[in-house]
Design goal:
alpha/beta, Rossmann fold, Helicase, Ruva Protein, domain 3, 19 helices, globular
């Protein structure tokens, strides 16, 4: 391929050109925005590798001016990785972090050779966009799909944030399936569901005898996800001392198993998520600021369903299609009255709540369609009954004289979880507990 190197540092420019020659490409070198724009107007290269910090202007000018036949890779330093986000939104295909390594450059150029750098957002029924399992025709969701398609092929760390039920794991799996690592594993770990004492072993593994109970060597998720994607779900629930260790691993791209001495290379793409307001989590000290900036090279908020109610009909029909494929009762449509009921609901549980509502309405309906009566009944249903016969409306928990504190605590936690549809974060907030405490109690024998 013909390559254009746009870098103002002569030494760095020459070193990059030599790497390109070593990989079998034909580089040309320029050191300014003006020279780069002139080169693009003549015989456009197949790829331009552009430093964002140039003496006579912003490298983004070169990104925006590149013709469609020229793929653009942007260069950025460790301290300014966030600038790459704007470059990718402006049209860059990928970003490369200095100091540049030959394997990193080779992987980016190999992907461009096949022109698979930007997966298309495909058309679904009714003009609704689709990307993997994600659907959306509303403006907020169209923008999410556009940005996911843009960032998916790169190795950029992505930070997904949004309320429970908005589809963060589905988005993470979509990123993986459209990435250069799609043939590798997708490994997810819920950072809030792991005992604080075991987080390090879960992430990095341990050697035999590293601690009591370590009867054999065990690989951690960083090794299990090798050449694939590691999804750190609810990363804001990770203990602060563990956040420091994670940051070091992300910066050095190496780690040691617990009890081990051998440094192991990190070869994963990291996607993180939280259902907290991520900036508030940073401001309150729940999430380290330096770790946030390392994880959030490409931050992306998934909108709640109430902000994209126009997507409810197509999502409802998609969930109906899936239920029908499993149960085969001959219900393949949704009556207009039912869609009207669905469109007026606030959906506090977001897409997950809609999916469950469609399944319940399917059970209550007869072929060939989900009826308006079934949809109305599902949406008007009171809160789930609580253990012991108490109504959800009263939020009462039956505790008898003589029950131990442990039994009372168990009943209260189970009842609260039932009242909020199993949403552990909502239950934790109602009870004044941390999410980690709720997970620990659910894992213990105190609560079955």
């Amino acid at each position: 391929m013909k390559a254009l190197v746009v870098e103002d540092d002569p030494g760095a420019r020459r070193a990059l050109a030599e790497l390109l020659v070593e990989l079998g490409h034909e580089p040309a070198e320029v050191g300014s925005v003006a020279d780069a724009l002139a080169s693009l107007e003549g015989d456009p290269p197949d790829v331009a590798i552009v430093d964002l910090g140039l003496p006579d202007g912003d490298g983004l000018e070169v990104v925006r001016a590149a013709p469609g036949a020229t793929a653009v890779l942007v260069l950025t330093g460790q301290g300014s990785v966030r600038n790459a986000v704007e470059a990718m939104k402006a049209g860059a295909h990928d970003f490369l972090v200095k100091p540049l390594r030959l394997p990193q450059l080779r992987a980016a150029l190999d992907l461009l050779d096949g022109r698979g750098a930007r997966p298309p957002v495909g058309a679904s029924r009714g003009g609704v966009d689709a990307l993997g399992e994600l659907l959306g025709g509303s403006p907020p969701m169209k923008e999410v799909l556009r940005l996911l398609a843009r960032v998916a092929p790169s190795d950029a760390p992505v930070f997904l944030w949004g309320e429970s039920g908005t589809g963060k794991e589905v988005a993470a799996r979509t990123l993986h399936s459209l990435s250069r690592r799609a043939a590798g594993p997708f490994v997810g770990v819920n950072c809030g569901a792991i005992s604080p004492n075991l987080v390090e072993s879960e992430l990095f593994g341990h050697e035999k005898g590293a601690f009591t109970g370590a009867e054999r060597r065990r690989e951690g998720t960083f090794e299990l996800a090798r050449r694939g994607t590691l999804f750190l779900d609810e990363v804001t629930e990770m203990p602060l001392e563990m956040q420091v260790k994670l940051l070091r691993v992300l910066e050095t791209k190496s780690f040691r198993r617990v009890g081990g001495t051998e440094e192991r290379d990190v070869d994963v793409r990291v996607v993180a998520s939280t259902n907290r307001d991520v900036l508030e989590a940073v401001a309150s000290g729940v999430l380290r600021e330096d770790l946030y900036y390392r994880l959030a090279v490409f931050p992306l908020r998934l909108p709640p369903l109430r902000e994209r109610l126009a997507d409810v009909p197509v999502l409802a029909l998609e969930f109906l299609r899936r239920v029908e494929a499993e149960e085969g009762r001959g219900i393949r449509d949704i009556e207009p009255e039912a869609l009207a009921h669905l469109g007026r609901h606030a959906w506090p549980g977001n897409v997950r709540e809609l999916r469950n509502a469609i399944h319940r309405a399917y059970v209550l309906s007869d072929p060939p369609a989900i009826s308006g009566e079934a949809a109305e009944a599902v949406l008007a249903a009171p809160a789930p009954s609580l253990p012991g016969g108490a109504s959800g409306e009263a939020l009462a928990v039956p505790v008898r004289v003589g029950d131990t504190a442990r039994v009372a605590e168990r009943k209260l936690l189970e009842a609260t979880l039932a009242a909020v549809g199993g949403d552990k974060r909502a239950a934790a907030e109602m009870l004044g507990l941390s999410l980690k405490t709720v997970y620990n109690k659910l894992r213990s024998r105190d609560v079955s």
